Amino acid sequence: MKTPLLQFTNKGIYCQAADVYLDPWKPVDRAIISHGHADHSRWGHKQYITHHRNVPIVKHRLGEVNISGKKWGETFSINGVKFSLHPAGHIIGSSQIRVEHKGEIWVFTGDYKTENDGLATQYETVKCHTFITECTFGLPAFKWVPQEKVFKEINEWWAQNRAEGKTSVLFGYTLGKAQRLLKHLDTSIGAIYTHGAVENMTQVLRAIVDLPPTTLITGETKKEGLLGNMVIAPPSAHGSTWIRKMVPYVTASASGWMTFRGARRRRAIDKGFVLSDHCDWDDLLDSIKSTGAEKIICTHGYTEIFSRYLRELGYDARTEDTQYEGELAEINTSEPEKAAAP
Known about the structure:
- This protein has helices spanning 55-62, 147-163, 177-184, 196-205, 223-226, 261-266, 281-291, 303-312, 329-332, 336-340, and strands spanning 7-8, 13-15, 20-22, 30-32, 47-51, 67-70, 76-78, 81-87, 95-101, 104-108, 130-135, 167-171, 192-194, 215-216, 230-233, 249-254, 271-273, 295-301, 316-319.
- It is α/β, with parallel strands linked by helices.
- The chain folds into two domains: 7-142 and 278-340, Ribonuclease Z/Hydroxyacylglutathione hydrolase-like (Metallo-beta-lactamase, Chain A, 4-Layer Sandwich), CATH 3.60.15; 147-273, 3-Layer(aba) Sandwich (Rossmann fold), CATH 3.40.50.10890.
- It has a seven-stranded mixed β-sheet, with helices on one face. A six-stranded mixed β-sheet has the order 1-2-3-4-5-6, with no helix packed on it. It has a six-stranded parallel β-sheet with strand order 14-13-15-12-16-17.
- Strand 8 (81-87) and strand 9 (95-101) form a beta hairpin.
- The longest helix has 17 residues, at 147-163.
- It is globular, with a radius of gyration of 20 Å.
């Protein structure tokens, strides 16, 4: 029986012909990394290969690792297998990994979204025979509205809170979501303050993209100075002693999970904005169709439901288990380093 070009092992997605892993979750000798989130970029590999914009992110999180950066579309060969990185549109520096060997082409998406958020390089369709797709939001209930509408709602919410003399506290994942929020906030409304985890990552990314000014909240920050302004913080800050400085405040979360009101209630959030760095149901289907792939492998998310629907459409679709979390990472950890520790 022919060995698949990519195999799912207990360490990660393995290319035997090249002896290299894609986003492995256990330490390996050589890893090609799709992006900087903790569930895809882990500590302990001897060699890391990624897009050059992801290099400073990985170094910030993991320290001075042995890492090299590639350009979009740059072909590099390992033991006769051709690899290249292509924009995934998920966060800054996020890549799809194209693998070609003996006329066979596979694409591993990592995490991806097709909407242009103004920060990440926009998603690019890559033709292939086998397409490995996430399906974090692989249910018909998930349908995003254009981000322009969402940010209009966020800025109106902030302006209303300012008029009432309250601090706006908006929760978003430290890497990716927080900077997307910063990029599209209306700074004419007020000043933007940040939690330390958000500020540290934002400073790394300022060398790559243009972001508005922010002020780090410290022990010296006065509550009076926060009133009417915006605070960007990771989800774990909610309910912590840190947030007491914000009183009186109103909270909101920006996440795809805010589609469900029950998710907002469980997190005791005052307001939910539906904003995801992943594809919704329609975008997943459109992306798969555009690749021309006949074989689809579904990972992390609503895998069984989504793959079953794909089979009904005529695809050769199946599921594989991974240790990727998708947007659950926004809920489970405030700093990528916590999830990346060995």
